[in-house]
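Weekly puzzle thread! Below is a chain. First person to post its structure in token form gets bragging rights.
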Amino acid sequence: MKKVLLLALLAAPGLGLYAQKLDKAKDLLGKKKITEAKTEIDNVLAVEKNQSNPEAWYTKAKVYVAVAGDSVLRSSVPDAREVAFESLKKYMAMEETREKDAAKRNVLLTLDNSQPLLDLYSGYSSAGATYYNAGNFNEALNNFKKCLGIFEFMSGKNLTTLKLDTTTTLYAGISAEKASKPDEAAVYYGMIADQKAKGEGFAELYKWLADYYRQKNDVTKAQHYSQLGREVYPQDPFWTGFELELMREKGSKEELFKKYDQVLAENPNNHLFLFNYAVEVYQVGYNQDAAQRPANSKELIAKATELIKKCLEIQPDYPNANMVLGQIIYNQGVDINNENKAIRPQGGVKLTADQLKKKEELRAQVVTKFDEAAPYFEKVASKLESEGKLKMDDKDILKNSLDLLITINEEKVSQLEQKKNAAEAKKNAAEVKSLEADIKKLSDKTTEYTEKFNNVDRKH
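Winning reply:
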């Protein structure tokens, strides 16, 4: 019994000394003697038996928060905030072990209104902003990430009711993007978008994510963020165009056409969607080599024609639509002309009367198609010639329209020349004179188109 009592008496002076040192560290901190307080608390926790006391870790956290807040001392202890945070986590972990009732835990932190954690948060945030403004985006990102670490810890411990620190998360994303770390930027932007956050400029965030995953060939996520963006910013026209482009790049033609049908049902008077849909359908249905066209080529071309005509009903002077419709009809004339050329003598045997008649009919059909196409090319030329400096694409359209008008006229002149030769052989002077007048008009028109073609680059 005496031995046990002696051991207890021997232990008491040590406990008193520990309490005195801890109180001294707290007193020095209260008097703003931060360097001395740091030395004192470090000495306290250098003793192994003292490391099981939550208050010691809490005091260390407060001391190191103070070190981090002092611009002079911080340079000698660059990891002061990290040390303070780890000390706070140890303090709270010990409190959880010590007290089963959550309401009775973390009394010291509660009495301080979580100030040490708030100071760490604001310190990292301020450092991140300083680095960001200085253009050091890697360090800005590093500090914003640590700031978010504090927030997430507080949220996990129910020390804040917020579930997302939107501002810091946004700046972490921007810093990552500016530091050429798009994969990290996507993580932070995604955290914001998944909460359907809305604010000034946030629409661009959803667009960035949709395009980022498009480039990553992740169609599911690209569609996810496009749909979220549409939900939050339904009036922004970007989503429809993006979804169509995504289907064009990553989906099948059937999926693309289905998407266009949906888009047109929602936007029946949008001439650009009609135009783009028509072009997509025509490119699938038409091939210069008829043998390479799909089995439903005629149906597709008919659908493209219908779409482009609807486009022109809404926007009659749209050069691109006039050009495409003219080309569709012109290419039909080319097909007929190819059919005509395929009828030729075989094995030295002359063409039959029926074959000659068929060729004559086909030649007439070619002219009919070319005459049907010409007004659309003329509308293109008239519209674009009246404008000033043209973009390169518009220049090309203007040149192509004039070039096709020249080709059409040359074909018509060629056919009129043949008719004139036949009339001369029959000595039909009146018909010859009439044909010569028609040829002269077409030749003059061809010269006019040629001059315009040659002057496009100079004038525009």
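Puzzle host: Confirmed. Bonus trivia for everyone else. The chain has a mean pLDDT of 92.
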